[in-house]
């Protein structure tokens, strides 16, 4: 992977924004891979600014998000459906009908609806393939090296599928649910690591000292399911954009 060390999130965001804006100019129906979390927010802001300043037509742009909770209605403010619409679709002015989140077809279907839930993952991978694949996938990374909801131990060949959320992830995310872990969903649906690796370009963003160890494992450790992001070493076009703090453990 190519590692770019930047001063701050804004500088990282501009690199992503320029890259994606040029892509959309060349390919108006570009397919963007989208992530939630704090790491991509400056990148979405930078892209939205370039789109506005340069009057780029984004009406044909398509999007596929990485992951979603199971069991939340789509219009729940903390669903990734809502989050992606709030942070990406609205500021960029994308066509909401062209942006997909893995749980959309389930719309809060109860976990007991096993057949429906089991079919949603393969259907999502098929939809990505039918769209011609993802052009640029933006990624954040967990302090344990997770990407999407692929926690350590996830198969590097995995497709989109339903998973149970790690206890630590539920504790970490309780802040979005009135600090009440009982309100945090127990399951999720996430693009697999194999799904992520099929995107033509991966852009992973990480900022702050808390990510330094995960970045060290990702860039300089062996490729291993113990650090899902280390799978980026297998990808022919992966760009890792990090600040000095996240880079502090690299040799
Ligand atoms: C988001 C996602 C997660 C985050 C990761 C980092 O859709 O799948 O893997 O990218 O947890 O989160 P932040 O960016 O908030 O540090």
Automatic annotation (TrEMBL):
InterPro entries reported for this sequence: Glc/Gal-6P_isomerase, Glucosamine6P_isomerase, Glucosamine6P_isomerase_CS, NagB/RpiA_transferase-like
Coiled-coil features, chain-numbered ranges: none
GO molecular-function terms, A-Z: glucosamine-6-phosphate deaminase activity
Activity regulation description: Allosterically activated by N-acetylglucosamine 6-phosphate (GlcNAc6P).
UniProt cross-references to CDD domains, sorted A to Z: GlcN6P_deaminase (cd01399)
Protein EC: 3.5.99.6
Site residues (Part of the allosteric site), renumbered to this chain: 154, 161, 163-164
Transmembrane intervals: none
A Pfam family reported for this protein in Swiss-Prot or TrEMBL: Glucosamine_iso
Residue ranges of domain Glucosamine/galactosamine-6-phosphate isomerase in the record: 16-233
Active site, per annotation: 67 (proton acceptor), 144 (for ring-opening step), 146 (proton acceptor), 151 (for ring-opening step)
Gene3D superfamilies for the chain: 3.40.50.1360
Catalytic activity: alpha-D-glucosamine 6-phosphate + H2O = beta-D-fructose 6-phosphate + NH4(+)
Keyword Hydrolase among UniProt keywords: yes
Residues making up the signal peptide according to the UniProt record: none
Entries under SUPFAM superfamilies matching the protein: NagB/RpiA/CoA transferase-like (SSF100950)
Enzyme class, first EC level, given as a word: hydrolase
Family note: Belongs to the glucosamine/galactosamine-6-phosphate isomerase family. NagB subfamily.
HAMAP family registered for this protein in UniProt: GlcN6P_deamin
NCBIfam families: nagB, PRK00443.1-4
Function of the molecule: Catalyzes the reversible isomerization-deamination of glucosamine 6-phosphate (GlcN6P) to form fructose 6-phosphate (Fru6P) and ammonium ion.
Name this protein carries in UniProt: Glucosamine-6-phosphate deaminase
Organism whose genome encodes this protein: Bifidobacterium colobi
Organism taxonomic ancestry: Bacteria, Bacillati, Actinomycetota, Actinomycetes, Bifidobacteriales
């Amino acid at each position: 992977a190519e590692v770019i060390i930047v001063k701050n999130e804004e500088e990282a965001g501009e690199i992503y924004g320029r890259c994606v804006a040029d892509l959309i100019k060349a390919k108006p129906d570009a397919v963007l891979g989208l992530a939630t979390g704090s790491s991509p927010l400056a990148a979405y802001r930078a892209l939205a600014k370039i789109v506005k300043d340069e009057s780029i037509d984004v009406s044909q742009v398509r999007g596929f998000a990485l992951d979603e909770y199971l069991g939340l209605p789509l219009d729940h403010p903390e669903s990734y459906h809502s989050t992606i619409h709030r942070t990406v679709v609205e500021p960029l002015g994308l066509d909401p009908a062209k942006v997909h989140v893995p749980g959309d077809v389930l719309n809060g279907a109860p976990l007991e609806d096993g057949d429906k839930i089991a079919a949603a993952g393969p259907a999502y991978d098929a939809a990505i393939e039918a769209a011609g694949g993802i052009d640029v996938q933006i990624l954040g990374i967990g302090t344990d090296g997770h990407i999407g909801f692929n926690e350590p131990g996830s198969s590097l060949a995995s497709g989109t599928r339903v998973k149970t959320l790690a206890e630590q992830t539920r504790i970490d995310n309780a802040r979005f649910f009135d600090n009440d872990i009982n309100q945090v969903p127990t399951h999720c649906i996430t693009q697999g690591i194999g799904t992520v690796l099929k995107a033509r370009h991966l852009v992973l963003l990480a900022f702050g000292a808390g990510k330094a160890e995960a970045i060290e494992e990702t860039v300089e450790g062996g490729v291993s399911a113990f650090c899902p992001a280390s799978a980026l070493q297998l990808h022919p076009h992966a760009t890792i954009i990090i600040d000095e703090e996240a880079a502090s453990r690299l040799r």
